[in-house]
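Hello Y.,

Per our agreement to keep a running log of every chain we model this quarter, I'm adding this entry. I've kept the format consistent with earlier entries: sequence first, then predicted structure.
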Amino acid sequence: MKKEKFIKKNNYIYIYGKHAAFAALENRNRFIAEVFFEHKNIEFEKKIIDIIKNYRPKLIMQKTSKNIIDSMLGTKIKHQGILLKAQKLQPNNYRSIFKQNNNISYGVYLDNLNDPQNVGAIYRSAYMFNFSFILTSLNKNPIETNSLLNAASGAYEKIKTLYGNNVLQIIKEFKKSGWWVVGLDYSAKINLNQFIKQYGKERRLLFFLGSEGKGIRRIIKENCDLLVKINTKEQKLSLNVSNTAAIVFDKIYNRI
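Predicted structure for the entry above:
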């Protein structure tokens, strides 16, 4: 079997916004080249200094003005007075999850999602509801853009990102390893509440989420163990995918 490789292109990224930047500074797996912060107030500066002192004592801080940060990002970006220049994190191949002998129970595969704001919101919800990883294709989804990191509000640093480009092989290997593969689809015969009551105690669940309108691809539907839907007033109108994800994560975490 041909081994997939993660190809580095532009390996540096700007990270802005307090939650995203603070989480990145606290993530020792991420290399930070520079940190710029606006001279705003004593409390804000103390927070940054304390994080750097505890996690990155050798990192040089640069106090600057809002105008300077605006000139680096553009005036329309709400950076909240902090900007990092950092290396992107390298996602792991999905097979790494099979080598871990722990209680990893829930993951989600993102199928052809193009909006980094939606993907970032899904990261945030997945972390809050204790999902273990997000799996995606490097070819068809946004991976670590600055707007995605900002929307994730720090969650990108705290949850595993896995990749794999052959979706049928992914499904096959997860099933072989004892995972249930579940697709979200508005035309499914079983709804999410029914699924959780019948199968909610299954230890390992991998959910597939597709884009709004199109949903998950037919080839995925045909290979899932089950398709489930969320009951809504009008089934033919699709929910925003990040809203769908949050509902699924909440139901699984709290078991209804």
